[in-house]
Amino acid sequence: MSETVDVVLIGGGIMSATLGTLLKELQPDWKIVALERDGEVAQESSNAWNNAGTGHAALCELNYMPDPEDPSKAVGINEQFQQSRQLWTSLVEKGILDAPSTFINATPHMTFVTGKSDVAYLRGRYETLKTQPLFAGIEYSEDSRVIHQWAPLLMEKRRKTDEPFAATRVPAGTDVDFGALTRQLFDHLKDSGAEVLLNHEVKKLSKQKDGTWLVRFRNRIGKAPLQLNARFVFVGAGGWAIKLLQGSGIPEIKGYGVFPIGGQFLKTSNPALVAKHQAKVYSQAAVGAPPMSVPHLDARMVEGEGSLMFGPFATFSPKFLKKGSLFDIVSQVRLHNIGSMLKVGATNLDLVKYLVTELLKSPAKKLDSLRVFMPTAKAEDWELIQAGQRAQVMKGGKLQFGTEVVSAADGSIAGLLGASPGASTAATIMLNVLASCFPDRIAGWEPQLKALIPTYGETLNDDAAKAKSTTARTAEALGVLA
């Protein structure tokens, strides 16, 4: 007989860590087991060097607001990030998380564009957002002197041309080390009695007659096959999730496929450069580029060290994880998803062209891309680093750029597919998992959830006073700007 536990978390990233933490607060008596195939948690997408660390709140990311007159998606993303901030605030106050500066730091978010049409778009976006309570404090300028004050590296030795440029700035942006945050949450789970098993790879999920899931896994060091039963399973294994969900046999996964896209960044730790650029600056994506490939020059703070990153430059690998298998992209193919996947390939020729162009870029060409942002960039200051793998969702013949929860009808298993905005909205995504998978308990949990996230079940943007007081509270607790 296998041991039966209440919850199995598959994957040692920010999603599993967030869900596990919420469940420990809601049901401290439940037995939770986390299984991570690597020797440490937070080694894939949650690792600080595998993502840009942007606290995604749609303050600077233009892909969340393609229509400058429609702020709905941008507001929605910001609402979700505010829930994450509230959760982190509560966890800091409870002593579950360490000092906020170990995982979050104030970093203004900016957008910088060139060309008449993009300047007109950015101006229209600013005019729309400045009236939204969650975007209070957004600034706009076409003045090179003002933009130089905001981000000197953008303006130094920029040639004077007839091409206009413009920028927006929100001082209340943040840089988040999701690797550090994930590790701290898992440390708390272990201290609270949860088992966190590293080097343990899940091989098979099988539904049992009693409604539990038989989770078969192996110790990658000892090679020993192991198993346990779980009343609830969450698959937060990044790109690996689709393979496990397909193997589980749940009908809800039918039709889904994923397309892996990797990335590289140019990175510098030159103190003189770091001191001159204390912001995250985003621009427009190239034609055909996925949203995760929007170019940006970011200030980072990882383990107390400041640095700058520029990119990403798209790469391609058939692997769903950095440490995945070369057969991943093929092994997902099923009769129920092959038609959709082929349609995605046929209708996204701009993406194919973009990926080919990116793959052919030499180091010199990548530096030229950086010089569009930073005219004074020198090759000797920058190194190329490999970022994480992202598995973009394919369904219904479309390539979807976002995150999607797939759960069984009985709520006994759920998994997460997709990427951006991902980690920044982990609190909201996991609240949705709780609501869909535990419908008989969610009402009883509401008082505890509101203690953790005071605006749980509410929105902020339609109440200016509440938006201001909530952001002020979390800003003070987390040591960032409101």
From TrEMBL:
One Pfam family named in its UniProt record: Mqo
Cofactor needs: FAD
PANTHER family: L-2-HYDROXYGLUTARATE DEHYDROGENASE, MITOCHONDRIAL (PTHR43104:SF2)
Name of the top EC class for this enzyme: oxidoreductase
UniProt similarity note: Belongs to the MQO family.
Record-listed E.C. numbers: 1.1.5.4
Pathway note: Carbohydrate metabolism; tricarboxylic acid cycle; oxaloacetate from (S)-malate (quinone route): step 1/1
UniProt name for this protein: Probable malate:quinone oxidoreductase
SUPFAM superfamilies linked to this entry: FAD/NAD(P)-binding domain (SSF51905)
Keyword tags: FAD, Flavoprotein, Oxidoreductase, Tricarboxylic acid cycle
Catalysis: reaction(s): (S)-malate + a quinone = a quinol + oxaloacetate
